[in-house]
Specification:
Strand content of chain A: 35-45%
Number of domains of chain B: 1
Largest sheet of chain A: 10 strands, mixed
Order of helices and strands of chain A: HHHEEHEHHHEEEEEEEEEEEEEEEEHHH
Oligomer: heterodimer
Distance between the termini of chain A: 41 Å
Helix content of chain A: 10-25%
GO molecular function (chain B): ATP binding; ATP hydrolysis activity
Structural class of chain B: alpha/beta
Number of strands of chain A: 19
Family (chain B): Belongs to the ABC transporter superfamily. Ycf16 family.
CATH topology of chain B: Rossmann fold
Radius of gyration of chain B: 18 Å
Pfam families (chain B): ABC_tran
CATH architecture of chain B: 3-Layer(aba) Sandwich
Structural class of chain A: alpha/beta
Largest interface: A-B, 24 and 29 residues
Number of helices of chain A: 10
Helix content of chain B: 25-40%
Number of domains of chain A: 1
CATH superfamily of chain B: P-loop containing nucleotide triphosphate hydrolases
Keywords (chain B): ATP-binding, Nucleotide-binding
Protein name (chain B): ABC transporter ATP-binding protein
Strand content of chain B: 25-35%
Number of helices of chain B: 9
Distance between the termini of chain B: 43 Å
Radius of gyration of chain A: 21 Å
Strand order of the largest sheet of chain A: 2-1-5-7-9-11-13-15-17-19
Chain lengths: ~425, ~260
């Protein structure tokens, strides 16, 4: 076995933790996780071999970036997703691993909403944060990448919504990667207490070409009793960035968790999106849109596990593969024993635009309870030459015809995304990815 | 006047290695309406697909030119922009692309970048064409041909014809599956196109369509060739007497392509 090369060691972790005035518990989590990294195996996403991928070698773990003072100073791609600056905005901007802008309206502050960067959350809301950080949803010792994440986490955001608070407008986070050397281990926690509701939208944006960089993202959503969490993400990380992204949530009784995920990275990506429907009567809906291009290889595992009775889980994923892009779509609906009257539905569709593009959709239903309903649909196919012929016979160029077919293929998912902002952004991102 | 001429000479076309057209000669000029008639399996639709450039049809011999330009050298979209149009017998369905979005792309494909048709103007034009074809306004926002009935698809082909205003149009069995009311509506749309510049080739095996759209020239196709040509009276005789007299006259036993 080859020795894994590490870009940081234990003393660097201690220094990093001290520099951020982290509470002792967090340093201990880091050190404990770091001691396990070497022995833990990589995750094994079905049908994608990732053991040669680079998750561990990167330039700087502790890259210091200059901050921005106003939204108008941000790169255009970031401004475009935030819009005009105004007082009622709830937005966090992070440059590489450095917190750059944080705006939270007075109204939300007064309601007890916490929205702050990772380091501040750990420092100023230590007890609350500790309750959530890699305790209930994702565990540090699940595999090598979760452990590495816990050891090296260097950015992220904490959103806490108290009981009965309903946040009307989306809360936004924008993570900008503009330092080719910087590695990002980003941690997002969205905790919604009972009867609260919130929409959170995040963007990962690369504005720099790198030779090789590493992004390791973990999101934990804790949806309390009868709460509603709508979680949107548009990932547009660069070509030579290897991304591990794990977005996972748990639901209390009658909670609703909706995911709207635009997976538009240009580099190799392993994405896990899991909802554990713990409470009776809780609900999960995952909608995912993917455009793959170039030579990237991606694996998207979407899983809903039903523990509670009367739980409902829906997965809808559509992906388009261009050039030599490869993607595996694994959809898993799992109904545990005792989760009676539950319903697990999934649909995955992949459209390949070129001879060399590859796609695979694997629908899996694992059912350990009799009194349930479940269904799945999956298709993988190449673009229909007769559709292109038809469009072109009206004078539309092949490129434009392909663009129309791609938009059309993704529209049934995009049009149903519950978050308007994400829908709009994705339409633009898809446009750009398809044109090039 | 800018009249166009589509010239087809000694056209041989094969599909999956089998020769279907065996030397078709035909010339269509702007202002002329031609009809190609003939029983099933004689190569009529193959001719229309070959002119437009259907990916499965291979031209093995002969030429097609539009105003002297070699059509066979052009991609499908270039043929369309050069002025050819094919109303298809079985139009594709395309999920997620609205009819309006598709039509606008087709219009803009003929215009320079930066000179796209204004949305208002486009909608006005589309609305008035849809009214004429007695189409529901909501069909503009439905996905292209998806879930359209047979009649709706045919009207939609004519809507495209009216919107694009090509030089030469080929209508492949535009009358099949239409009831008499729908046929009248579709014919009205086609007749509206009639002018000194617009040339049209209608492919049908029913004379019925020609009651509403009077052709200047009628051709009969058998065994992958045009075996007889005449004026509108030829279609009437075919309606009254069928095809047997032509077969006898020409000594043809089986009219289909062998």
């Amino acid at each position: 076995m080859t020795e894994t090369k590490w870009s940081v060691d234990e003393s660097a972790i201690r220094d990093f933790s001290a520099a951020n005035n982290e509470p002792e518990w967090l340093l201990n989590v880091r050190l404990d996780a770091f001691s396990k990294v070497e022995d833990l195996p990589l995750p094994k996403p079905d049908k994608t071999k990732i053991d040669k991928w680079n998750f561990t070698e990167f330039g700087a773990h502790d890259a210091k970036s200059a901050t921005f003072s106003t939204i108008s100073e941000l790169p255009e791609s970031a401004q475009a997703v935030i819009g005009e600056e105004h007082d009622e905005q709830n937005v966090y901007v992070q440059r590489n691993s450095t917190p750059a802008i944080l705006k939270l309206s007075n109204e939300l502050k007064e309601a007890g909403v916490i929205f702050t960067d990772f380091a501040t959350a750990a420092k100023e809301h230590s007890d609350l944060f500790q309750k959530y950080f890699m305790q209930q949803v994702v565990k540090a010792d699940e595999h090598k990448l979760t452990a590495l994440h816990a050891a090296l986490v260097n950015g992220g955001v904490f959103l806490y919504v108290p009981k009965n608070v309903e946040i009307k407008k989306p809360v936004q986070a924008v993570f900008i990667h503009d330092d080719a050397q910087a590695a990002l281990f980003n941690h997002v926690i969205v905790a919604a207490e009972a009867n609260s509701s919130v929409t959170y939208v995040e963007n990962y944006i690369s504005t720099v070409e790198t030779e090789q960089s590493v992004v390791n993202i973990i999101t934990e959503v804790i949806a309390g009793d009868n709460s509603q969490v709508s979680y949107g993400a548009v990932d547009t990380l660069g070509e030579n960035t290897t991304t591990y992204v794990n977005r996972r949530g748990i639901t209390a009784p009658n909670a609703r968790l909706e995911w709207s995920l635009g997976m538009m990275n240009d580099g190799n990506t392993v994405s896990e999106n899991v909802t554990n429907l713990i409470g009776d009567g809780s609900f999960a809906d995952t909608k995912m849109v993917v455009v793959g291009r170039g030579k990237q290889s991606q694996n998207f595992t979407t899983k809903v596990v039903h523990f509670g009775k009367h739980t409902e889980g829906y997965i809808l994923k559509h992906g388009v593969m261009k050039d030599e892009a490869k993607s595996i779509f694994n959809g898993i609906g799992k109904i545990e024993h005792g989760a009676s009257k539950s319903n697990a539905e999934q649909e995955s569709r992949v459209l390949m635009l070129s001879e060399k593009a590859r796609g695979d959709a694997n629908p899996i239903l694992l059912i350990d309870e009799d009194d349930v309903t479940a269904g799945h649909a999956a298709s993988v196919g190449r673009v229909d030459p007769l559709q292109l012929y038809y469009l072109m016979s009206r004078g539309i160029s092949q490129q434009e015809a392909e663009r129309l077919v791609i938009h059309g293929f993704l529209a049934p998912v995009v049009n149903k995304l519950p978050i308007e902002n994400v829908k709009k952004q994705l339409t633009g991102v898809i446009e750009r990815k398809v044109r090039q | 006047m800018a009249q166009s001429t589509l010239t087809i000479k000694d056209l041989h076309v094969a599909i999956d290695g089998k020769e279907i057209l065996k030397g078709v000669n035909l010339e269509i000029k702007g202002g002329e309406f031609h009809a190609i008639m003939g029983p099933n399996g004689t190569g009529k639709s193959t001719l229309s697909s070959a002119i437009m450039g259907h990916p499965k049809y291979e031209v093995t011999q002969g030429s097609i030119t539009l105003d002297g330009e070699d059509v066979l050298e052009m991609e499908v979209d270039e043929r369309a922009r050069a002025g050819l149009f094919l109303a298809m017998q079985y139009p594709s369905e395309i999920t997620g692309v609205t009819n309006a979005e598709f039509l606008r792309s087709a219009v803009n494909a003929r215009r320079e970048e930066g000179d796209e048709i204004s949305l208002m103007k486009f909608i006005r034009q589309m609305d008035s064409n849809m009214d004429m074809l007695e189409m529901d306004q909501d069909m503009a926002q439905r996905y292209l041909n998806e879930g359209f009935s047979g009649g709706e698809k045919k009207r939609n082909e004519i809507l495209q014809l009216m919107t694009i205003e090509p030089k030469i149009a080929i209508l492949d069995e535009i009358d099949s599956g239409l009831d008499i009311d729908a046929l009248k509506v579709v014919s009205k749309g086609i007749n509206k196109m009639r002018n000194e510049e617009f040339g049209c080739l209608m492919i049908t095996h029913y004379q019925r369509l020609l009651n509403y759209i009077t052709p200047d020239h009628v051709h009969v196709m058998m065994q992958g060739k045009i075996v007889k040509s005449g004026g509108a009276e030829l279609a009437e005789r075919l309606e009254a007497e069928g095809y047997d007299w032509i077969k006898q006259e020409l000594g043809i036993e089986d009219e289909t392509v062998q």
